[in-house]
Write the structure tokens for this entry.
Amino acid sequence: MDLHTIKTPSLVLDVWRVRRNAAAMSGRIKGLGASLRPHVKTHKCVEVARIQTEGHAGGITVSTLAEARAFAAHGFRDITYAVPVEPGKFGEAIELSNLCERFALITDDSSIPPLLDEAARRAGLTLDLFLKVDCGYHRCGVEPDRPEAVEIPRRIDAAKNLRFAGILTHAGHSYHARSRAELLALARHERDLMAEFAARLRSDGVEVPTVSVGSTPTATHYEHLEGVDEARPGNYIFFDAFQATLGSCGFEDCALTVLAAVVHRDRARRKVVLDAGAIALSKDRGPVELDSSCGYGRVLGLGGEELGLRVGALSQEHGEVLVEDESLLDALTVGARVRVLANHSCLSAAQHTHYHVLEDSRVVDRWEIQRGW
């Protein structure tokens, strides 16, 4: 089977690039003296997670309980669920903790520790619970200078059926950096804020077992990780057009593309339409702050070569591409195939059920994607 015969639209995974990205991040985080706990939400794939955790303790990060259940069923037993837990998920979280050697939760709300403690007491177990810290993203988390930043760890520490797992953050605002210098500054701020906050908690008598940080843009720019125990990047395993434009990687590091076919050619309007629309690519606008012409993905040839084209408009199942070059327009006949490097690999992957694994220009395997909540 090859790229000329598989169904479109489909995900194509360059496994050699996946292995190279995994080895690079693994070596980088180890060299900085921290543990790697990759975020598997990017791929939701057991085989990819095994590549990421090779040579490590095997801990992973998930963003849904469905991911946690699927990965636990395949032998991953040290899992952090990195979305603030709410009472409606206590029951499933307790079930999952019985399937794992360690299943850690996070919170940024002072009402949660006593409620979770009571649920854990009724279940007859002890749960690990992190404090989620806001290091500048302002999506979730407690800012370190707020009273609850100390109050919540103390509540967890005092609970009989909870263990304070430590402090955890995500520098998601790094995706809006405008330069490598700005990325480096954000990476330093994330690391230093967390190390200083952990030191302050310890001086107040609160033991902090783990200081956890992580985002792909900051993880590719840390100079050191003093005061940090683990990093949780995820997107690095595939990268994407956003990360390459941002400067986290080169375009040659991007491992995931969407195979698409031309279904319509309009010579008068100098455009072609692909059978990959919003459902196949996602509608992530990507690095529009850095590249106003980025569209919804870069159009590549079957060999991965740059064609200088962008997916400029999307509907549910259609992607429109303007083609000014006459020779390219001639070549892109109905039925011709291209690969689209999407803006956000995590969202694109989540739209599909499986990857076609590409090695030496041949499709050698099919890896399932574990979807759901």
Notes: Residues 263 and 334 are 5 Å apart (CA to CA). The chain has two domains: 32-235, 250-368.
